[in-house]
Amino acid sequence: MSDLTKKVFELKAHLESVIVGQDDLIKKMLIALLSSGHILLEGAPGLAKTKAIKTLAASVNATFNRIQFTPDLLPSDITGSDIYLAKDNRFEFQKGPVFANFVLADEINRAPAKVQSALLEAMAEHQVSVGSKVYGLPDLFMVMATQNPIEHEGTYNLPEAQLDRFLMYVKINQPDALTEKKILRLVRAEDMACGDDKECWEKDKTEYKKMSTEEILGAHQEVLRVHTSDEVENYIVALVMATRYADKYSTDLKDVVRFGASPRATIALDKCAKANAWLEGRDFVTPEDIHAIAYDVLRHRIILSFEALAENLTADDVIERLLRTVPLP
């Protein structure tokens, strides 16, 4: 086990000590981090979405900004804008909150599409264009967005173009009774230990030795060196092709997909499968690694047909059929 692997597992253990009952969420966030991708989290209020993201950002020695999306937000509130300096008789660009290593887009579906699209260029190209100038973003740049699925008043669906920019779309379920009890005891212990003492909370945060951005970028390179065989590559491509030409693979897939996954899905399946294998201690990808991340990579890249919607099928239902239909290598 390399030093970087040990550091990432220390990070994982630290996150699990703070976020109780969300082991799958923590692993998916680490996969996105190791794959240099963005992640969208969806779940009911109170499931530690925001806390998980803030804890991850606080566990790395990097810059972090939070954007609370609201209906009155403007694109320039995210990207920044040119400000006129009367004293010097010139304009100067003031960077917006998107200029950070970690950006939390909280309740991203509360802002209209015009504001949501302000993140498109940043997420896809790691840059922001304002007027005739282009401003680069840090090498380590990750957008972590949250949205609430049960509240529809005053919300706006994310356009497909923006959804495709997210490496993973993770859905979070309610905890079971045992986990709920652990959460209750953890919060009670934290309140009793620190109460309103801010210094106490800060001390607890500094007990964990943070990873540096250089170490995260080094882990990126180790993940990229994980081997994907020709057979596994063909399997990844076959899964994506089956979303586009479903009727050629099985009658179960016929007429349920209106638009299939884009080439970004193929790239994302490969990257995330490599990261999953690396976290499992292997230097090669297996079909099990692909199955472990397939739902999170594909569910937001498949547009269902009217027939599928009439049958009350979800994207996850279609992905289940997909994994059952496409032959394993």
Short précis:
The protein has 329 residues and is an alpha/beta fold.
Write a structural description.
This protein is α/β, with parallel strands linked by helices. It folds into two domains: 3-202, P-loop containing nucleotide triphosphate hydrolases (Rossmann fold); 226-325, Orthogonal Bundle (Helicase, Ruva Protein, domain 3). It has helices at 3-18, 23-34, 49-58, 76-79, 113-116, 120-125, 160-163, 177-194, 198-206, 213-224, 230-244, 263-279, 287-298, 306-310, 315-325, and strands spanning 39-42, 60-61, 64-68, 80-85, 90-95, 102-106, 127-130, 133-136, 142-147, 168-171, 211-212, 257-259, 303-304. The strands form five sheets. The chain has a five-stranded parallel β-sheet with strand order 3-6-9-1-10. It has a two-stranded parallel ribbon with strand order 2-11. Strands 4-5 form a two-stranded antiparallel sheet. Helix 12 crosses helix 13. The protein starts with a helix and ends with a helix. The mean pLDDT is 87.
- CATH homologous superfamily placement of the largest domain: P-loop containing nucleotide triphosphate hydrolases
Total strands = 13
Q: Characterize the biggest β-sheet.
A: 5 strands, parallel
Range of strand content:
15-25%
Strand line-up of the largest beta sheet: 3-6-9-1-10
Q: In terms of quaternary structure, what is this?
A: single chain
| Rg over alpha carbons | 21 Å
Share of helical residues: 40-55%
CATH architectural label of the largest domain: 3-Layer(aba) Sandwich
Q: Mind telling me the CATH class of the largest domain? A: Alpha Beta
**What is the element string, with H for helices and E for strands?**
HHEHEEHEEEHHEEEHEHHEHHEHHEHH
